[in-house]
Write a structure and sequence with these properties.
- α7 packs across α8 and α18 packs across α19.
- 42% of the residues lie in helices and 16% in strands.
- 30% of the residues are buried.
- The two termini are 30 Å apart.
- It is globular.
- It is an alpha/beta fold and 459 residues long.
């Protein structure tokens, strides 16, 4: 085995996606470890065998590989459900590309992502919504915490929106409480006795999300059954489309048609179904930026933002932090059977100095973790996890006298090491999102990209 062959073997067997390659007769020539886990076969059971022999329930119209061989066309992110060797239903999203050289079809490559667990979860959620009327947690505006002037303006606007049937776009960073406000709008509206249904548009690939939103009919694709989608489930009520900026653009066009025409069509069906659903959408980034970057259709934005509600981030309303802290301590005193009465000054100093990129959700998580460690009546710095202490407190307790400088290292190299560590920490905290990390570091995205290349920092 030469270097290139060994390199290809390592790559194929160390990626998360399943890879299945067939020749122009449908016989398998490559089958990697990820595909073994998805389909339940061993590679030695598959290589050299024909697809039809391996999966008797597949044919040229239901197998993406065979379809690509026949049509000599690529198939991008096709949703497919079928039985694996062990008789279990598996759900994959496949991209299949024909291999054509000098006009001759030599074979096809399929890249499969396993969405079986995600589909099972959503199927379970759909069943719960069908069988349990009180599945959704009701929220009222009186439940919302916060007293800053800008936030109170946001709540007043949301209250006015609850008196109409217009579409609403809620803009706010992750963790600011967009879904809470959406629920308040619904449960304060004339639709409050009808369903409130929420779906995260960032959690699913296009083909799977389309079936969940609009429903499916039996035979529309392999494994499809007759099932209503979330639009039908929310009929008469409200459908929350969370992170609409992450919805694939092709699906945004279909959503726009629904908003304009007032009916949906299940995947694979020819019948239109009228629906009466109020749409509330959210975005965790500036919509104009999303439009410029091609993530959000401009026409859909204008259709959604009849009422436009912006939630200020926690760093812009730090006067609300003590209110949140008191509420969360009260909550976890009850849940964890604690008796915390006050918060140490150094904890509040850290809270008020921090920028809270994760907003209220981040604050809540930190307090919950610390409350598990408290044994007395005061919440102190040492009750927080070491990594949280590093984030919230240590950067304010370092003086020049604490810095141990090794004079054998050139100053430029020493400063580069410090910068590298800071950038690495920002990238890890932002889950390697360059835009978010640049915002945390308060530098331009292009500057951060240059420094990432300079220091060789990557995920």
């Amino acid at each position: 085995m030469d270097f290139n062959e060994k390199l290809l073997e390592i790559i194929l067997n160390n990626i998360d996606e399943g890879i299945h390659v067939v020749d122009n007769q449908g016989n398998t020539i490559i089958y990697n470890k990820a595909m073994e886990q998805i389909e339940g076969f061993r590679a030695d059971e598959v290589v050299g065998k024909n697809l039809i022999d391996l999966f008797p329930n597949l044919n040229e119209s239901t197998s993406t590989l065979l379809t690509s061989l026949k049509t000599q066309q690529s198939i991008v992110e096709r949703y497919q459900t079928y039985l694996n060797k062990k008789g279990f239903n598996i759900t994959t999203v496949n991209t299949t590309v024909p291999v054509i050289v000098d006009g001759n079809i030599l074979g096809a490559i399929e890249i499969s992502k396993n969405f079986t667990k995600i589909k099972e979860l959503y199927d379970r959620i759909l069943e719960l919504r069908n069988n349990k009327d009180n599945f959704n947690e009701k929220k009222e505006f009186s439940d919302i915490i916060g007293g800053s002037a800008e936030f109170l303006k946001t709540i007043e606007l949301a209250k006015k929106a609850s008196k109409t049937n217009s579409t609403v776009l809620i803009i706010g960073e992750t963790g600011t409480g967009k879904e809470v406000i959406a629920r308040c709008i619904h449960y304060s509206s004339s639709r409050s006795d009808k369903p409130f249904v929420a779906v995260n548009c960032a959690a699913l690939p296009e083909s799977l999300l389309e079936g969940i939103l609009f429903g499916t009919v039996k035979g529309s694709f392999t494994g499809a059954i007759n099932r209503p989608g979330l639009f039908e489930q929310a009929d008469g009520g409200t459908l929350l489309l969370d992170e609409i900026n992450s919805m694939p653009v092709n699906l945004q066009a279909k959503l726009l048609r629904v908003l304009q025409e007032g009916y949906i069509r299940r995947v694979g069906d020819v019948k239109d179904i009228p629906i009466d659903v109020r749409i509330i959408a959210t975005t965790n980034e500036d919509p104009y930026t999303a439009i410029l970057e091609g993530k959000l259709r401009k026409d859909l934005y204008y259709r959604l933002s009849v009422v436009n509600i912006k939630i200020p981030p926690l760093r812009e309303r730090k006067e609300d932090i003590p209110i949140f802290v008191n509420e969360f301590i009260k909550k976890y005193n009850a849940e964890l059977i604690k008796e915390v009465w006050e918060v140490a000054d150094e904890v509040y100093d850290g809270f008020m100095s921090y920028d809270w990129p994760g907003n209220v959700r981040e604050l809540k998580n930190y307090i919950e973790g610390a409350m598990n460690m408290v044994t007395g009546h005061i919440l102190r710095m040492e009750h927080f996890a070491p990594n949280v202490q590093e984030i919230l407190f240590k950067r304010f307790n370092t003086s020049l006298h604490d810095i141990k400088y090794n004079f054998e290292i050139p100053l430029d190299e020493y400063l580069d090491n410090i910068e590298r560590n800071i950038i690495q920490a920002a990238m890890e905290k932002s889950n390697y999102n360059v835009t978010k990390a640049a915002k945390m570091l308060q530098i331009k995205r292009q500057t951060l990209q240059h420094k990432l290349n300079k220091y060789g920092i990557n995920k």
